[in-house]
Amino acid sequence: MTTKELSSLYHLPFFTLLQKSRAVHEAHWPGDEIQLCTLLSIKTGGCSEDCSYCAQSARYSSGVEAERLMPKCDILERARAARDNGSTRFCMGAAWKGVRSGTKRFDEVLGIVREVADLGMEVCTTLGELGPEEAVQLKEAGVTAYNHNIDTSPEHYKTIVTSHSFQDRLDTIRNVQDAGMSLCCGGILGLGETVDDRLHMLEILSNFNPPPESVPINKLMPMPGTPLAGAAPVDTFDVARTIACARIAIPGAKIRLSAGRTELSEEAQTLCFFAGANSIFYGDKLLTAANPRAEQDLALLAKLGMRPQSPDRSRPAPAVAPERPLSPQPA
């Protein structure tokens, strides 16, 4: 879809937009099913990047201390607990610019991935930039999806990150998809962007070939010590409108209501589910930010008559459409 088409949708009367997004959702997904994902920071803090929203950057005095890679036994303990509590996807994030084949830390990550994959869960990693070789190795180790958000429009991106470019993000995305992994790719609302920036981001995501398997929509949680610590909060209706547009633009993707859920009431989260969100991060923490407790999430899902989606490691990555350009490019 184009930004112009998305803008026409976004500015519809609210209930009209939700009627359209709900119809698309029901045509592609079970209405009572939601994916439960657990996100674990396996290496926290000390990142060399300068992402303005991130408390893990070594450039900011955010109070987040640099830590070593978590021991494998501790990660596996958390993965088993996540599986036993109903999570079907285990996502592991590391605060560094990227990984390189042949290094000790990448070999350690590959070993961790193999053992988490043996638990029968879908395995997602977010490790920064990947080259073609590293992407293939992660796929062979058992990674089913790789998270690499584009965050916002290419025009706005350079105002929030200078240590890498928007094209660098696209290059990693291409390497992930060429290796046969599913792509988890979305953005953050509240970075000082305009509505057009948000819609241009969705335009780019909707034109990826193959399309993203999942699209996280994050609501910025301003972190003390970061340049965006004083950012204005995003209106809940803007979050719901963005989710609705994402559902229409990328109908086959899981739309994940991601960071910022602590600031959404149960009623606001329910509105987002109705608009098309069918995935959440589940547990007490998202990397360095709080998350609604698992018990609260399960209680809300019970109220709504919703059920967790089953894991499916055998599901192939989205297929390439041969009539469309392969490499993602900013419009």
Describe the protein's architecture and organization.
This protein has helices spanning about 5-10, 15-30, 70-85, 105-115, 130-140, 155-160, 165-180, 195-205, 235-250, 265-275, 295-305, and strands at about 35-45, 90-95, 120-125, 145, 180-185, 185-190, 215-220, 255, 280, 285, 290, 305-310. By secondary structure, it is of the alpha/beta class. The strands form two sheets. Strands 1, 2, 3, 4, 5, 6, 7, 8, 9 and 12 form a ten-stranded parallel sheet that branches. Helix content is about 40%, strand content about 15%. Helix 3 (about 70-85) links the parallel strand 1 and strand 2 (about 90-95). It is globular and about 55 Å long. It has a single domain (about 5-305), classed as Aldolase class I (TIM Barrel, Alpha-Beta Barrel), CATH 3.20.20.70. The model is unreliable at about 285-290 (pLDDT under 50). Helix 2 crosses helix 9 (about 235-250) and helix 5 (about 130-140) packs across helix 7. The protein has eleven helices and twelve strands.
